Amino acid sequence: MKRILIVGLFVLIPGALRAGEIRGKVACEGLSDNANAVVYVGKVAGKTFAPPAGHVTVDQANRVFQPHVLPVLVGATVDFLNSDPYGHNVFTPDACADKFNLGTFPKGEKKSHTFRKECFVTLLCIVHPEMEGFVAVLPTPYFAVTGPDGSYDIHDVPDGSYTLKVWHPKLKASEKPVTVQGGAAQADFRISR
Q1: CA dihedral (43, 76, 131, 25) positive or negative
Q2: 3-state secondary structure at position 96
Q3: Which of 3, 143, 148, 181 could form a disulfide linkage to 40, CB 3.0–4.6 angstroms apart?
């Protein structure tokens, strides 16, 4: 017979998976700051994850895709909102995202696209060629984007051994093994061109 230990508002069942964190810093060599690196857990053998029911939003404001880099789970739908007082277009030349083109649409409107394959997608605007953004379509829900100091924190990662990967729109990708066991695991990266 298994014993159940009640601690505060949490019920601990022996042998149950516990969730931990993976945290650390990414140093982006040759750039002015360490922001916009996506750190994520790679594919987990035998596991698939249902996409979120709700949509995620990328805004187009002041001729900038906001956020500049958006990580999502495979199967997620992204709404592209136009908050500028003039028309914007959203498209990608990337085959892994079906080379979609949402057309040009005015202020206050939004158009959507569902990302069905793991890939790194470049977002562009035909109307404003200086605009560029990115969607990282990932195999697991365990991901984070670094801040200007390079720090990241991935929450709710079950205990286990994983391949932790880092991707940046301007730098080479990197990966390393990491083990989460009853708490926080630390993993730092140094990436360059």
Answers
A1: negative
A2: helix
A3: 143
